[in-house]
């Protein structure tokens, strides 16, 4: 036994050495770099204030204009980003325990099952600097270490959002405070150090640079002491998120820059459902505060812009540009003053979910722009494809096309939907939104739980949501791009609204059935949810499903719709109503959900 064991070990060792050797000799797989900003919007034009990002990425790569996060808050979105799974399949649905944060990522077994681990197994070296997940902090950083990184230098809570007093933690070393230094500049130097290490190793590498800009600044003293038990609402309400802090050299830029005055900017009539429809219109003073806050975000992004410039300079000097893909995105979007909202995220509005995605690399059309629908669940499958790894069956997304032919084929063929979901709180950001009396936020919402669908097809463009209060929203974004008129209930005096010339009474049952599938889809059914409703494969889009041949099926056979019994702060299935479509158990539909 012992001998055999040794022989096997020796064989394994020899093969590992061979493998290493082969890699050094000629592994021509591309390097992959992700630049991940925090809370960066697409709809308030933040990208247009980044000339160096434009020069190196937008002008030299392809801009994916219909890219979406699936849960509009940091930790759940980042877990989705690095696992390729929707939050309903990771059950990391919040930023803090018990429903989220780094401890929940670990307890769900995901620390053994996410991108860097898979990339290392496939022969890549892997590097990360910046914010990984929330609640990854100065106490739990080594219990356990985030797995899968050849070399890493993480930002740690409670100092993550201190622009001028960050704490970084490198490899197995103790955390180090960077008091008085500018977080993004420290991070850039760390990233370039990691890049050098990667180049020295001489095999294909993956590197993420994850600065906090343009997130709010959060003072560490306001964080409750890190601990294993959940924070209370009262403790969380002490955490004040204030105006982002730009680097000293950028603090006077863009005088007069203001939040774009779009149709949904602080509207005269409230919009949205649930807690949103009770928001007061913003005062002139609040609008002014929000504009200042907005300008600070643009300024804070300038250090990121400079980091992008230096990255490309370095890639060029290493001779790596020809074999490196660079992916630029954010964890989620952001709103300021739209729908009367204070600065923040967590909503299903387009400002919160439709986010920047720009990719540059060897096969990618230069100066390209596309409207194909992509989501954060597609990023890991895309990286797998680049690394030549077979996709996992539990991926909830599919690879994003990265060449001209692929991009052209995707038009009309690629999925038209995004599954959007959220559980728990909505919190205002910016100190204006904290009461002077007790320092607590002016609102604290604990019923911001909803399931939604974003659908962008030929001749239709829809957002549909069902809330834990059982309210519904339907926006026809062809005629109402700013999501002001909820047409779910047309007034009785108005003629019934139509979509594709069909009355809503025909469209809604299709949307309800689709949402029933997407809200708890897994793997392939997330990419093609219609296959659950039409197993014979003749329906691939809402347009197909609207065929009158299917009227009876949608009106009579599909018995159950998404509904809630209760608003919860996490993914508590028992409070989330029916879980199956309730299809009749005969014929082709017996493989019910
Ligand atoms: C900066 O952070 C360190 C801990 O890492 C802390 O000891 C120090 O007081 C902080 N400085 C300021 C000005 O908040
Ligand atoms: C282009 O991308 C498509 C899929 O997106 C892929 O099937 C094809 O092989 C790629 N072509 C080249 C030349 O790389
Ligand atoms: C939602 O939560 C807010 C704040 O906790 C509360 O004021 C409101 O009544 C709740 N709405 C519903 C429909 O539960
Ligand atoms: C998600 O996690 C929470 C907290 O651990 C747990 O109560 C809940 O049952 C989990 N939901 C699912 C669907 O596993």
Automatic annotation (TrEMBL):
SUPFAM superfamilies (alphabetical): Alkaline phosphatase-like
Annotated catalysed reactions: an aryl sulfate + H2O = a phenol + sulfate + H(+)
Coiled coil: none
Pfam families assigned: Sulfatase (PF00884)
The keyword Lipid metabolism is annotated on this UniProt entry: no
Signal peptide bounds: 1-16
EC number(s) stated in the UniProt entry for this protein: 3.1.6.1
A Gene Ontology BP annotation from the UniProt entry: phenol-containing compound metabolic process
Keywords of the record: Glycoprotein, Hydrolase, Signal
Post-translational modification comment from the UniProt entry: The conversion to 3-oxoalanine (also known as C-formylglycine, FGly), of a serine or cysteine residue in prokaryotes and of a cysteine residue in eukaryotes, is critical for catalytic activity.
Residue ranges of domain Sulfatase N-terminal in the record: 30-389
One Gene Ontology term of the molecular function aspect: arylsulfatase activity
Modified residues (3-oxoalanine (Cys)): 74
Cross-referenced InterPro entries: Alkaline_phosphatase_core_sf, Arylsulfatase, Sulfatase_CS, Sulfatase_N
Entry's family note: Belongs to the sulfatase family.
Protein name (Swiss-Prot/TrEMBL): Arylsulfatase
């Amino acid at each position: 036994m012992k001998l055999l064991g040794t022989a096997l070990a020796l064989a394994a060792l020899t093969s590992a050495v061979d493998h290493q050797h082969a890699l050094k000799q000629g592994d021509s797989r591309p390097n992959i770099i992700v630049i991940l900003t925090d809370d960066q919007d697409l709809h308030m034009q933040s990208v247009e204030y980044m000339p160096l990002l434009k020069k190196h990425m937008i002008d030299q790569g392809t801009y994916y204009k219909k890219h979406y996060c699936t849960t509009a808050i940091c930790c759940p979105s980042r877990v989705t980003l690095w696992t390729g799974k929707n939050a309903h399949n990771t059950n990391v649905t919040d930023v803090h325990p018990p429903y989220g944060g780094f401890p929940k990522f670990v307890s769900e077994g995901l620390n053994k099952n996410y991108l860097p681990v898979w990339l290392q197994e496939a022969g890549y070296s892997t590097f990360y600097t910046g914010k990984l997940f929330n609640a990854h902090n100065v106490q739990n950083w080594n219990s356990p270490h985030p797995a899968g990184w050849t070399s890493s230098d993480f930002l740690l809570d409670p100092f993550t959002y201190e622009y001028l007093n960050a704490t970084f933690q490198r490899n197995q070393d103790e955390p180090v405070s960077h008091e008085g230094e500018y977080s993004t500049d420290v991070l850039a130097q760390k990233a370039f150090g990691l890049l050098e290490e990667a180049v020295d190793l001489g095999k294909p590498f993956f590197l993420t640079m994850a600065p906090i800009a343009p997130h709010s600044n959060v003072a560490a003293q306001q964080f409750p002491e890190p601990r294993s038990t959940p924070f209370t609402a009262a403790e969380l309400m002490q955490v004040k998120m204030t105006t982002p802090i730009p680097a000293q050299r950028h603090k006077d830029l863009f005088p007069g820059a203001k939040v774009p005055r779009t149709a949904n900017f602080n509207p005269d009539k409230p919009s949205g459902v649930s807690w949103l429809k009770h928001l007061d219109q913003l005062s002139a003073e609040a609008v002014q505060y929000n504009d200042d806050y907005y300008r600070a975000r643009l300024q804070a992004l300038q250090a990121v812009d400079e980091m992008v410039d230096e990255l490309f300079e370095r890639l060029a000097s290493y001779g790596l540009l020809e074999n490196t893909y660079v992916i630029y995105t954010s964890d989620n979007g952001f709103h300021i003053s739209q729908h009367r909202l204070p600065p923040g995220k967590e909503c299903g509005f387009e400002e919160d979910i439709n986010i920047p995605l720009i990719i540059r690399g060897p096969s990618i059309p230069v100066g390209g722009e596309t409207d194909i629908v992509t989501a954060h669940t597609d990023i890991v499958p895309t990286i797998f494809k680049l690394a030549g790894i077979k996709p996992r069956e539990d991926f909830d997304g599919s690879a994003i096309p990265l060449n001209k032919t692929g991009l052209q084929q995707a038009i009309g063929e690629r999925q038209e939907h995004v599954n959007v979901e959220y559980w728990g709180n909505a919190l205002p950001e910016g100190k204006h939104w904290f009461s002077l009396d007790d320092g607590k936020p002016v609102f604290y919402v604990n019923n911001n739980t909803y399931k939604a669908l974003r659908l962008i097809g030929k001749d239709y463009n829809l957002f549909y949501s069902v809330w834990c209060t059982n309210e519904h929203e339907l926006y026809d974004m062809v005629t109402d791009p700013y999501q002001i008129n909820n047409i779910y209930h047309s007034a009785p005096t108005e003629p019934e609204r139509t979509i594709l010339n069909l009355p809503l009474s025909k469209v809604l049952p299709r949307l309800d059935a689709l949402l029933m599938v997407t809200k708890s889809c897994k793997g392939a059914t997330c990419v093609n949810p219609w296959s659950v409703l039409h197993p014979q494969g003749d329906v691939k889009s809402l347009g197909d499903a609207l065929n009158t041949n299917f009227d009876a099926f949608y009106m009579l056979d599909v018995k159950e719709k998404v509904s809630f019994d209760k608003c919860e702060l996490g993914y508590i299935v028992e409070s989330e109503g029916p879980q199956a479509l309730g299809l009749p158990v005969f014929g082709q539909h017996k493989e019910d959900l």
